Amino acid sequence: MIKDSVFAALDAANARRAERRRFLKLAGAGTAAVGGLALLSACGDDDDDDPSPTPTPTPTPTSTGVSTDVGVLQLALNLEYLEAQFYSIAAFGRRLPDSSTTGTVGQPGAVTGGRKVEFADPLIASYAREIAGDEIAHVNVIRAAITTVSSSLVIAQPAINIDGGATGAFTAAARAAGLVGATDTFDPYAGDLNFLLAAFLFEDVGVNAYKGASPLISSAVYLEAAAGILAAEAYHAGLIRTELYNLGAAGRNAANAISNARDSLDGTTGTNADLDQGITDAAGNANLVPADANAIAFTRSSAQVHNIVYLRNTAGVGGGFFPAGTNNSIEALRTSGAFA
């Protein structure tokens, strides 16, 4: 069904592609710096299933704050591995190549679950392909940025669970949100609505995580990269929220339930307990831009983000989408809880 909002979303996507090209030109590392790893850009048009390589210049890291900067980038790379694998499999039916997931830091892990979605709406399918291209690009540009400090600091992809079966992370998340019963399953690859709900679970968390991490970065080049990715993730989140809202009660109610579940996991209490916000307010009005009274997006700490992707509201490492935990190398930050 063609909607006015669809054309508005496509216009926004065109603007985002132009902004992303500017960001990649400024922030990405050259292929020589990463030992031949090519940076994959998003699809050139919505009918092209394969992201194409885009070489970019090498940034110069600052001499101060390198450990913190690398820790932030490593945290971001964990999340980008998760998103990129989900979208690549859902949109293209394939996992990331080994050249985009290997590293010398952390325990490497496999991806559990996932299959290509048979989309009913070609517009949703085109969105999935474009976002998949973006997330693949994010993985490679962050890996390249870390490599400019040292290739020995690139983290391996940790074990990732994106399965919709009885023991899958998506099913656990859906049960926690009350979308399915205690013995039922949630398959994010079963169709358009389920795919959008799975994407909604990830995208808002990505926006909050980048906003929380960006102030910790001292390198202007890496901050530019993080800000550019934050903007792209915000575009993704806004598009997904709009599509779910346009699906009516089924999309809105399910998204709000996921939002409430995320808030219950992140440990926030008191007046800031509703950091996440659903896609409608208490009166049923659209809430497509979750923000505070000053229209500023909310922040989540690394610990809060980990609680959500681990699907746990208690201290600990591992669970949910990262069964064995995330990979990070900065021990001082890890033991402090900042990057656990």
UniProtKB/TrEMBL annotation:
Protein name: Ferritin-like domain-containing protein
Coiled-coil ranges from the UniProt annotation: none
Matching InterPro entries: Ferritin-like_SF (IPR009078), Pigment-catalase-like (IPR052965), TAT_signal_bac_arc (IPR019546)
Region (Disordered): 43-67
Pfam family of the protein (one): Ferritin_2
